[in-house]
Protein 1
Amino acid sequence: MLIKEIFLSLVGLAAGFAVSAGTFAFMIVIGVIPRMIGKCNRAAETIHFENAIILGGILGNIVSVFLNIKLPFGPLFLCAYGLSAGIFVGCIAVALAEILNTFPIMFRRMGLKEGLSYVMVVMALGKMLGSLYFFLHRLAV
């Protein structure tokens, strides 16, 4: 029994390292961290930015996994957090699509030259409405 728990702990730890390494590598590849450092004009403190991002990821995981925290801020705070998290995930998804040149290729094949901003807004609204439908109709597992 102890060997099984040790094995599962090591597998979980290795999987966590792999996922976090991929996440941070993805953020670097799409240019989030270098762009943030460039906007702040703090190239000399690059290591501090990287350390802050890594520590934020580690502490966020520790808090979400090991601590059972009840926030007394109510539904308004939950809505603000959900909106912020949704915007973050949406920005990461759009950045990935932009890196892969998905949108320019799609727009060129569709023959769109005008109204590209409207197409992007409609895509974002569709994603938002789909998410709302998913959660409001209790489709989550």
Protein 2
Amino acid sequence: MTRQEVLESTGPTPGSWVRVKLGAKRDGTLVAADVALAFESGGFPGSAFVAGARCALGPYDIPNMHVEGWDVVVNKPKVAAYRAPGAPQTEFGVESVIDELAEMLERDPMDLRHQNRAVQGTRLADGTALGVIGNTEVMDAISQSDHYRSELQGENRGRGVAMGYWGNGGMETSALANVNADGTVSLVVGTVDIGGLRATHAMQLAETLGLPYEDVHPKVVDTDSVGMTSVTGGSRSTFAGGWAMHEVGLDLRRQLEARAAQIWEVDAFEVTYGDDAVIHGPADGDEARSMTFGELAGQLAMTGGMIQGSASVRPETVGVTFAGHIVDVEVDPETGKVDILRYTAVQDVGTAIHPSYVEGQIQGGALQGVGMALTEEYFYDDDGVMRNSSLLDYRMPTALDTPMIDAILVEVPNPGHPYGVRGVGEVPIVPPLAAVANAIHDAVGVRMAKLPATPRAILEELEPDA
């Protein structure tokens, strides 16, 4: 397809309309929330309005909630899921009103959020009770960060904060692993690598087996070559894949114990696979029996054949995620242009399996969110023709448009995973829209109720009668 065809017909995230009403006591305690949202679905039903409704009030404990959503068919091309589908739009509404409330009550924006934070046992709008979460720790990390505690100086400069919530998926994942004679392991997975998944899967299998990461060789295959593996999305792939790696590793350990028992001519229950990848057996007289993983691998072919482990899992013990972003902006009142001066993203990542990959996911999500907040829009004329269907006119931010995005990793392990994994890829796109809008308000006093906050849109707010 041409670039124009891609932009016009393959599906953007939904355009949306959100109305948020919050009620609070004078001491800042939130007591009620009413959220209404309508998402464009294009010519066919199927927008992400359900996810948007579920995530809207996720960071907060509010005793009385009413959330209502509509999936609206319009005369436009279809929409598609786009990183935490539905959540950025609804959190933009909620987090903007939270800031308005803080201003009315003359409260620090983070103090008000912390006072009303969701904790373990808090029920979401759909009735789901939250398990072990890192929401409090994320808010504490924001408030204590050098960025939030620093002084922002200069005219037309402002600072904004916002929180975000996203639930993770489980679904089905399968994997195979072959022990090779040289002591390495060939790993076969069906999860498409969109963010370093081969590395994180190999690391979790290596951890289960007690092997160096370099000894596990992952390969992504097509769906005919491995068992059922669900979509690579929903912040589920490292979580569910990690469960599969754990089960594959345990399967290999059991088989290796049985093979060592056969070689030593002892009962299998007398053999133990250690976490250091050394297999121990009962003493032969005064001499202890042991073999390393590599030593045993070299004997497999002559003692019954090579060994393959397999697993197919469908874990339900997901770990939901919270993030909070701080952004400093400068607004040019003459042109309406917004410059990002400083950006810090804080996120509960469960256990950071590969910390640099986690930081990359957070930075990428934050940058995409900045694009949604400031530049990215589909512009239709009165005849319904998209007038910016090229990358010259559809403006996406690049590394030249923002400073280095600092990432603060908060690790509150998910108890429903052998290595504490939570999905990390989607929640970083949730806070930026509101954080940038709140920063613009702090800088020049106008509340952006519509995004993106393009120069034209900001000038219309600054000079409504011009």
